[in-house]
Structure formats: C-alpha cells, structure tokens
C-alpha cells in the first residue's frame, strides 16, 4: 500500500450527503439495494466487455455478488467480481456526481424531510447511500484486465474528504466494506440482510450469495446420523431476470420492486406493460410509467429511460432510440434477440430493427395510457398533471401518432369553471352543436387571460365551447394539430372568424348593415394607426368589449410572437 492521498469531495457531493443522510433516515435499508445493484451493473459491464475480449474474465468467469457480515467488527461487506475500477475511475465515480443538473436539483431541496426524501429517491442516491448506515466506508477495487498490483483503496467517513491509495488486490472486482453507525447496528444481521435482498434484489440476473456456515455431523430426532454440511456460498435470490419469466408467474409486487431498481424511484409505478414479441423481430419489453415526474423531466438531454439488453446481456443504459422524446418519462428495458451483441449507439440510430421496436414500444405506451384514461380517469388526471406538458410535445415530434396523442390531451375549457385540464377532445366533440364543424380554442398567457379574453364573448353568447390554453408549449402544440376526428381546429383570435352555418340569415344581414354604418369610423382608425396595424375591421365577435386585437390567418399569433421574442429571435 502506498501513502494514502487525501481529496475533497465535489461540493455537490458534500451537500447531497448531508441532505441524504438527514432525509432518508426512515428508508435506511435502500443502501443495500443500491450497492447490490451497482455490483450487478459491474457484472453486466464486464460480461459485455468480455464479448470482445474474453481474457478479461481471467480464470474467474462465474460472476456473482457476495454479502457478508462481521458482527464483532460491526461491518457489512458487499463484494463482486465484476468490472472493477481504475484509480481514475474511483476518483470520478466516488468523488463527484456526474449527472447534469445536479446543482439545480440540490437547490430545489427544501429541508422538509418527507418532501426531500421523495426527490432524492427520484434523483437516485446510488453509491453515496452507503453513508446512510455507515460512518466509515472502504472500497477496495481492481479493474478487469489490470495487474493485481494496480488495486485501489478508497476510504471516507462521509464528512467531506476521502483518501485514495494503491493496493495489491488479487481478486478482480470491488469490495465495499461498511462500518455501521451505532443507530444502524440492526443491519449486522444475516437474516435481516437476506430479507432485504429478497425484497429488492430477487429479480437480478446475477446470483446474490451469502455464506452458510458448515454444520458438523449430528444425531437426528430418531437417532439417525445427519451428515455434516460444508460451509458454502448460497445463492439467495432467484437469479432469473424478471422480464424473462412468464407474465402469469410474476406478481404485481415483483413488478413494482423491479421498477424501483430500474427507475431509481422510491415510489411505485403508475402502470406497466410487459410484452414478449415474436415473429419478424423477437424481443421482450418491459415499460413503466412513473407516478411522479422525475427531477430532470425538463432536461431534454438527460434522457434516462430504456435499458437495452441483447439476449439477456446488458448492452447500454439510456438507449434513447427506443422512445421518442415526448415519452422520455417512460422507464424500463428492451431485450432484443435480433440485434448483434456488438451493437453501438450509432448502429441503433439507423437500424431497421431498432426503428421497428421503437415504433411498437411507442404504440404500446400510448395504448397503455389510453386504457388508463378510459378506465381510471382519476389516475389519468394525475398522470396528466405530471406529464401532460411533455406529452404535448408529441404532435410536433411524432406525426404518425398525432391522432392517438391528440386523444390523450386534456384541456381547460369554457365549459367548466376551473383551470384544471380535464376536457378531452372527445368530450368536446360530444358537446358540439349540430352544425358546428370546428374545434374552437384560444391560447393566452394564463388561464385567467384566456378565460376573460373578449374574443370569447360571442361564443358564450352562442353557447359554443372554447378550449382555454395557457401553457408555454400550447402555441407550439396547436401549430402541429390540424384536425382531430375530421374536425379542424380554429383559433378564436385569428383572422376573420367565420361562424359559418352557425350564423343565421337575420344576423348576417344585421352584420352587413353594421359594417356599412361604421365604414367612416374604420377609415378614421386606419388613418390614425397607420403602419402600426395591418388592417382595421368591424367585428361581430364582441358583445361587451369595444375592441380586440387579432392576428391574420397566416401570421404568427401574438402568443407565438412572444415565445419567439423570449427565445431571442
Ligand atoms: P449509478 O449506478 O447510477 O451510475 P452510483 O452512485 O450508484 O450511480 O455509482 C456511481 C458509479 O460508481 C457507477 O456508475 C460505477 O461506475 C461506479 N461503481 C459503483 N459501484 C461499483 C462497483 N461495485 N463496481 C464497479 N464500479 C462501481
Ligand atoms: Mg448505482
């Protein structure tokens, strides 16, 4: 061992450690899920790398995770023979947080324990969760392919600093040794650990083992001889990847626990869909919709979501090719039988197989949401409040599924009296007047502004419903929605509003007369406003207000103009 080198944690790590220890106080046992899942990831990574270079497996191809307890020393050790880490990797992985947006995330934390624990749960506490139960953590690791002299030892008390030293380590992989805090001594207990592993890690495909002590030869109840058993490492999880099992054999609880591991979420999922697809392409997908929006939903770049496996071998995280951006909240995995094991992100980008899996998975998610909307409207409303804004990106991104996405949209409307977005286009159409052929809407800065816009007066008078849109994205959405169910969309603040057949003869005549009567006024207005406006017209839309501003059919709407201005255009 060389002299240990002292380093400080990145500021964000220090802050996260403080907040985490404080807010995950009542969720202590998740440290084991995180550390075992890291060990399992390490095995997955090694298996993948060994496809190209099987020398990496050395003489130790039997990948596993071992958990052991030393009651006297008050320690737990989680040991794997996976990919291991080099010194540089140790420095980055266990000294910094690589996730983009971490600073913003931390600044959102409030100090309110229950609220923060939910947020931190979604952020994914990972390795640092060791410090929930440990006052000292030692990591001893050696990277696959490195010489045994190039082991690394990392130590920290979680108080802002860590040390790194070179060590000799014969066995490939990583040992994590936790020295338990007084208030976490309960975890120095074999049975307790077994129970936790069964709950959280049963579905992992890697064997998770604990040591079974040898028993000496003994005498049975009927005087027979019970043979001695040797001490051995016993596999305590079922060791079969959950998604490879038959749907009918998987309980809801198992699906839920599995979700928590793939999604790094404390909460249960809202819904899921597990599909074995046979035929032209063979693959299995397991797709989840979370209950709540993740901390980085608005970061379009950080698309954590779908893990890719090929023939049960883990290939990559965040395979963005399998889900469109507007469904980036979907978590889960795809396990393909057809893709080559050496598939890369570049290959996936332009690949018939991945395109077909993407399109089928997209449809799956949309139909799973349709079902929810139909059968559990209240849960759907909750989904909408969390993810509706993201779904609204859909029509622009996915022309092929516009109709389906449109049926999932929810709006506030002049029919009700609430800013909540609960009205579907089908609801709207069902309430349309017999001779109405358009879906009327308005986009404004706020619900109140939409609701009180003078352009709505004529609609109120005629009893025609208007959708009230006021989210930032709505203008963008409406510029990509042209019709739904053969009804076209019509902004009530645009152009010459033609209420078509809905105006009766008498009122048409009255309109003409008014226009004549005001010819002179219009002329004076036009002169006075000059270049500032395109034209001045007599309108029949207003019943109570004297005037309103509209845009031409083909011009940018006022709302879009504001958006462009905000974007610096
Ligand atoms: P995540 O697993 O989400 O990447 P973690 O905080 O759990 O985040 O782990 C950080 C990183 O540390 C991992 O991405 C991995 O590179 C490394 N790491 C942690 N545990 C192990 C391990 N047992 N073997 C190899 N690398 C590990
Ligand atoms: Mg992890």
UniProtKB/TrEMBL annotation:
The entry lists its GO molecular-function terms as: ATP binding; ATP hydrolysis activity; ATP-dependent protein folding chaperone; unfolded protein binding
**Keyword hit for ATP-binding:** yes
Annotated stretches, region: A: 1-345
The answer, when asked if Nucleotide-binding is one of the entry's keywords, is yes
Instruction: Supply the alphabetized keyword list.
Output: ATP-binding, Chaperone, Cytoplasm, Nucleotide-binding, Stress response
Where in the cell? Cytoplasm
The record lists ATP as bound by 34, 38, 80, 85, 93, 99-101, 122-127, 174, 345
The UniProt record lists the Histidine kinase/HSP90-like ATPase domain at 27-184
InterPro entries registered for this protein in UniProt: HATPase_C_sf (IPR036890), HATPase_dom (IPR003594), Heat_shock_protein_90_CS (IPR019805), HSP90_C (IPR037196), Hsp90_fam (IPR001404), Hsp90_N (IPR020575), Ribosomal_Su5_D2-typ_SF (IPR020568)
Gene Ontology CC: cytoplasm
What's the domain of life for this entry? Bacteria
Q: Which SUPFAM superfamilies match?
A: ATPase domain of HSP90 chaperone/DNA topoisomerase II/histidine kinase, HSP90 C-terminal domain, Ribosomal protein S5 domain 2-like
- Similarity comment: Belongs to the heat shock protein 90 family.
Q: Which NCBIfam families match?
A: PRK05218.1
Q: What does this protein do?
A: Molecular chaperone. Has ATPase activity.
The identity of this protein, by name, is Chaperone protein HtpG
